[in-house]
Amino acid sequence: MQNFEFYSAKSIEDCLDYLSEKKELCKVIAGGTDLIPVLRNEDIYPDYVLNILGIESLRGITEEDGEIRIGPTTTFTEMVESEVLNRTLPLLVQAASCVGGPQIRNRGTIGGNIATASPSADVLPAVLILGGVLEIRSRQSGSRLLPLADAIDAPYSIRLRPDEIITGICIEKLPPGTRSGFEKLGRRKAMARARMNMSIVVRTNEEGIISELRIVPGAVMPVARRMEEAEGILSGKRPDSSLMDAAAEALADQILRVTGVRWSTEYKMPVVENIFKRVLGQLLWNNKRGKE
Amino acid sequence: MKVNGISVEIPVRPTWTLLRVLREELRLTGTKKGCEQGDCGACTVIMNGKAVNACLVLALQAESQEIVTIEGLGTEDNPHPLQKSFVEEGAVQCGFCTPGILMSAAVLLKKNPSPSLEEIKKAISGNLCRCTGYSKIIKAIQSASKYGDVQKSLRVDTYWATSNAAERRD
After folding, report:
1. Which of B47, B58, B128 sits opposite A36 (nearest CB)?
2. How far apart are CA B148 and CA A35, in angstroms?
3. Residues of A in Cβ contact (< 8 Å) with B67
4. Greatest CA span in chain B, whole angstroms?
5. Positive or negative, the Cα torsion across A210, A273, A215, A86?
């Protein structure tokens, strides 16, 4: 590991001052589960490392007027154990519980998962599908709100200036009757990077017609995003097996157009289709076959 | 920081990890250095009551925190029930993963003295063992309560390999 100067910020103001001075020479550290391995490999060599774990106000989960606010240094374990999240946004709990193993979840943070923006992130796609908005601050331009969907631009990169820091992740509660599901597929159950994951949010009306559907597959494209084509096939319709198959096919097609045919395509495409049908089937009909 | 109940002050470099300070400065070599990527769990210690990989904590981030290492879990004369159980049930083969697994298991049992099979598997899912099939390890965790109070305090001010650790300034 190349040498750097380490500084522990005492408050958000302190942190903003430090970042505005050091800018791109500085890397922010929270749980360190992503940063320390790349520092050790000397993939990056910042002159300064700014620790934000000591800033109490950046941690914790609060609920206010239908909105959930999660501090960026809230750990995955804290998310999994949060009464508020289990009650209001179980999708986030499911995603957080899939990250690494217990030791990683005890250190790794939601802000870090978003800021690292790994294509195989587990929590990032869950925040994305829930329409999460980042609250960002800097010394120079005060605070701004940036939807996560607009923040993601490339693998391992989000649209955050070097003097900016995420101070909160805001997510609106889902309307009543909305169901959500998350499934991760790794090479093994624990400690695996996602080969793929699937987040789905769905709401049906009294007649059984899908009034809202959001689909975000993770780890199969350079950056996670909503899959509008597959969503469109099922939205406004009463779901059945053949529509489900059509949507699954559209999902695989859209992914394929983004990634092109790769060595793993032959394996991944049928698996994407099946995981999609399994998660949605579970939500709609309480079965894993994706059939009515 | 506090290590196994004792306050220690050690000059460190910014690049040092908690693992390096424990092993090379404090000479607490029970905590093993494995992959140094957070994958294997051999360096698991308890920080403020939670299992963490010591290789993924910068030493400076451990300032003022409470650490318990395998040396703080028990001694040869007064082993933790988990340690007795691991020996009795034959859950140790090469032993490299054992300290890490004991720490993960100790955190689990402290919270939940009679965990289910699934809870045990989940608690040690961040620890790799390449010798066994985990079944004896799981059995040993299940039977630990036969060998004493599994919830006993982890911060025992016991075995302490001081050597000349505190004086080193390199």
Report:
1. B58
2. 40
3. none
4. 47
5. positive
Q: Which tens digit of pLDDT belongs to each residue from B56-83? A: 999 999 999 999 999 999 888 889 999 9
A200/A262 same-domain check: yes
Its domain, for residue A271, covers 179-285
B51/A102 Cβ within 8 A: yes
- The residue among A268 and B158 whose pLDDT is bigger is A268
Q: What is the pLDDT of residues A43-53, one digit of tens each?
A: 999 999 999 99
What single-letter amino acid sits at A268?
K
Q: What is the DSSP letter of A186?
A: E
Distance CA B96, CA A70 (A): 38
B122 in contact with chain A, both atoms CB, cutoff 8 A = yes
pTM of the model: 0.93
CATH number, domain with residue A20: 3.30.43.10
Tell whether B85 is within 8 A of chain A (Cβ). Answer: no
Which of B37, B44, B125 is closest, CB to CB, to A190? B125
